[in-house]
Each structure stands twice: as C-alpha cells, then as structure tokens.
Amino acid sequence: MRAFRAIGAAMLAMVATAPAAAESRLAFVVGNDAYRNVSPLQKAVNDARAVSRSLQQLGFRVTLGENLAWRDYVEKFSLFENSIRPGDVAFLFYSGHGVEIDGANYLIPVDAPKVSPEQQSLLKDVSISTDNLIQRLKARGTRTQIIVLDACRENPFRLASGRSVGGSRGLADARVPGGVFMIYSAGVGEVALDRLSDSDADPNSVFTRSFLPLLANPDNSLVAVAKQTRSKVKSLASTIGQTQSPAYYDEIDGDIFLAKDSPSTPPPSTQPPPPQVATLPPAPAPVPPPARPIEPAPIAVPSQDFIFPDSDRIRLTRDMLARLSPTQLRIARNEIYARRGRYFRDPALAAHFGRFGWYRPYTWNVPLSAIEQANVSLIASFER
Predict the structure, then answer these.
(1) In the sheet where 247-250 sits, what is the strand order?
(2) Contact at 8 Å (CB) between 94 and 66?
(3) pLDDT band at 65 (very low <50, low <70, confident <90, very high)
(4) 168, 199 Cβ separation under 8 angstroms
(5) CA distance 38 to 295
(6) Cα gap 71→204, rounded to integer Å
(7) Residue 6: which residues within 8 A CB-CB, separation 6 or more?
C-alpha cells in the first residue's frame, strides 16, 4: 500500500511540475489600398507586408491578406479562426479604411459601396466588425489577443455637406474583454497619417514605421511598445503641424514581451511546404532567329534572383518575352507568385526559389494585382 501511495505521490508531483503545453502564435494581417468605390490608400499593403515579415521573425504563423473584398476577408478569416487552439496567442493587424458606426468599429473591404448617411445598416452588413472578430477568437479559447488597427483615417463616406456615415473621423473608443491588448494608430477622433507629405519616400505609414522597430526590441513589453510608439508618432506628426496620438487598451494581466519570449525559430506555416529536391536544369541557350533587316536588341536577363525584377510594377511586353526559352518563361511566370509568398507543388520550382533569401512562402493562394495578372496571362500565352 505504501508503495502505491509513493507512486501516486510521484505522479502527482510530475503533473504539478510539468510545463504547460507550448502556445502557438498565429497572426492575421490585412492591408487594403485598392478601394473601388471610395478613396484609395497608398501604404496599407506595404504596412501589412512589413508587419507580416516582422511577426514571422517573432515566431508567428502569419496569414496575410492584401486588398481583400468582403467575401475574401470572411473566407480567409474563417480559415485563420479554425486554426486557433485553446491557449494560443492571436495577433490581428489591419491597415486600411475603417469607420465608427453607433459606437462600434467596422473595417472596410475594398469592394464596399459608396453609401449615404441613410444607408448605415448596409455598410454594417458589408463591413467587418472588430467586436465580432475579437469575440470569435475568444470563443476559440485564445489566451492572448493583440489587435493593432491602423485604420483611423478620414471617413471615406463623408459628404461635401459635412454629413457622413458614422463618425466623421477616427474610430470609436475601445471596449475590450479580458485577455485583449488593442492599439489604435491614432486617438479617438484623430486621423492617422498615411504619410508626412507627398514627397515622403518611406514605404510605410507614420504609425507602422514607428511601431515595428519597437515591437522587435526584446526589452519592450507591449505597454512599452505602445507608449514609445505614441511618443514617436506624436513627434513625427508635429513636424507638419498635425496631431496624432496612438491609443492603447490593456486588458491583459502581467506584461507581454513578444521579442524576448519569441521562439528561436518560427513555427511551421499553416500549409506544409513541398519537399525541396533537385533544382531546375539550366536553361538551354536560345536559338537565334532568322536574320531580319532590323534585329531587336536582346533582353537583359538578370543573372540571379529574378528574370523580371519589376514584373509586379510594370507591364511586360511581347518584345520582352520573345527571346526567352521555355524554361525562362516558366520561371518568369512563377516568380510573380513566388514574390507574393506562394508555395509550389512542383519540387523543382520550390527548390529553385528556395535558393533566394527574399522567398518566404506562407500560403497556396496569393492575391495578384491587375498588373501581375496581366503579366501572368501574357507569359502563359507564350508558353502555349
């Protein structure tokens, strides 16, 4: 009997001293620039990409969305929501238009219609409620939620008469439940600056460029990050005579140090990457075309990383593709997807792009801009 008691006591001691199951860090990051019916923005997508890279370095498994329409947002968030397990840490970042309606905050998808003040209910139906997002993640058992909203810009639905849908500017004061830490890029009723001037060359908004370096400092708790970000943003805004004072709401017990407590290596992505095997064979030398009176100049193909470094920003032409081999065309088409972070089922493509430091796959489905879609279609027409 004593032996059984000793074994039982030992087992209880082991249970009491066993470490808690390791938490997972998951992030949902969205940047919306390309609004179809209201004023577009310039830096929201850049902000989302920068935040995504930073969070990956802090051990987060990131779901990134760019220029999401309502259906795309709902579907992508649903997949993210279903990946949450009890005890996880969830980080939500949104950069884009947002509006306060009846004391609640709504994030505006890129396909939201231009509505009048009499259509507030319609806008609620086609927008994303931040309260709803928070409650859905709470229902999944998150231990900690960190919500960052860089959406406190001028109300895009404000009329020339001064009337508007919801508040005229900024977002509403937060009412966050326990376990949630929320940061707004501006205070209640303030407008967040996309840039300091038209000549401001920084790719990120005033808030995001201030926030990210502080988040990466292992000595900074979330509260310290919020306070130092507020100080830095206020200082930058004052240089052009503006007022912007980021606000934060802390309902978390204790201090959170994301950089200090981050895993040594990021966790695996939500989709397992395909195996890395042999690299693509070297491209065969192009066969010179028959002599013509005027021979087009050969295209300059970069010796490394990209066939077309600017295929995400400029439209390719038929002349630019005419001298490429089938292998080069295939790489040129797929590097557009690789730049966006797409996985590849073809092991040879995965191995080829895996050689480059810029390639950081995170999803099977990536959004493409209109320019990128046009370039993919043009290259594909040459491959057929």
Answers:
(1) 61-66, 25-31, 89-95, 144-150, 180-184, 247-250
(2) no
(3) very high
(4) no
(5) 47
(6) 26
(7) none
Residue identified by tokens 């209880």 is: 12
Separation between Cα atoms, residue 118 and residue 165, nearest integer Å: 8
- What does the DSSP assignment read for 230-293? HHHHHHHHHTTT-----EEEE--SS---TTTT--SSPPPPSSPPPPP-PPPPPPPPPPPPPP-S
Torsion of CA 336, 68, 193, 39, to 10 degrees: 100
130-133: long-range contacts, CB 8 A cutoff, minimum separation 24: 130/104, 130/105, 130/106, 131/104, 131/105, 131/175, 133/77, 133/92
pLDDT for 4 equals 36
Q: Which helix (H) or strand (E) holds 138?
A: helix 130-139
Residues 192, 150 contacting (CB under 8 angstroms): yes
pLDDT grade for 177, boundaries at 50, 70 and 90: low
Reported residue count of the chain is 384
Token pair of 322, please?
A: 């005419």
Q: State the maximum Cα–Cα separation within the chain, in Å, rounded to a whole number.
A: 103
Q: How many helices (H) and strands (E) does the chain have?
A: 11, 9
**Type of residue numbered 203:** P
Q: How confident is the model at residue 85 (pLDDT cuts 50, 70, 90)?
A: very high
